[in-house]
């Protein structure tokens, strides 16, 4: 499946969440990631994120799609992370 993940995390935990999300997805913009992921890896990501987060302060939102082709993405302005440069 293809997901877009967005988080709003307390300042003290942002670094840990950033490192975690980069292990699973492609960084797009501050606190925004996207990419293909299977159910097992997504479950693991959510468990690890839950260990970093404080339920009463933080949020994590995941948008799911079957495939990237079903999602139309429009970028206005500069693209923060150009995915075409990945090897």
General description of the model:
- The chain is an alpha+beta fold and 87 residues long.
- It has a single domain (2-66), classed as Alpha-Beta Plaits, CATH 3.30.70.240.
- The chain has 2 helices and 4 strands, in the order E-H-E-E-H-E.
- The chain has helices at 14-24, 39-52; strands spanning 2-8, 26-29, 32-36, 59-65.
- A 4-stranded antiparallel β-sheet has the order 2-3-1-4, covered by helices on one side.
- Helix 1 (14-24) runs antiparallel to helix 2 (39-52).
- The two termini are 21 Å apart.
- The model has no long low-confidence stretch (mean pLDDT 86).
- How is the CATH topology named? Alpha-Beta Plaits
Shape summary: globular
Compute the number of structural domains: 1
Rg (C-alpha, Å): 13 Å
CATH architecture: 2-Layer Sandwich
Main beta sheet: 4 strands, antiparallel
DSSP summary, beta strand count: 4
Helix content: 25-40%
Mean pLDDT score? 86
Give the strand order of the largest sheet, numbering strands 1, 2, ... along the chain: 2-3-1-4
Which structural class fits the helix and strand makeup?
A: alpha+beta
Helical stretch tally: 2
CATH class: Alpha Beta
- Low-pLDDT runs of 5+ residues are none
Roughly what fraction of the amino acids lie in strands?
Answer: 25-35%
Query: What is the distance, rounded to the nearest whole angstrom, between the alpha carbons of the first and last residues?
Result: 21 Å
Series of secondary-structure elements, N-terminal to C-terminal: EHEEHE
């Amino acid at each position: 499946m293809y997901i877009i993940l967005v988080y709003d995390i307390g300042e003290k935990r942002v670094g840990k969440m950033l490192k975690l999300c980069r292990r699973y997805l492609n960084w797009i913009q501050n606190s925004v990631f996207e990419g293909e992921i299977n159910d097992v890896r997504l479950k693991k990501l959510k468990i690890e994120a839950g260990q970093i987060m404080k339920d009463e302060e933080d949020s994590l939102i995941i948008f799911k799609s079957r495939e990237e082709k079903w999602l139309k993405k429009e970028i206005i302005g500069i693209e923060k992370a150009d995915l075409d440069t990945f090897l």
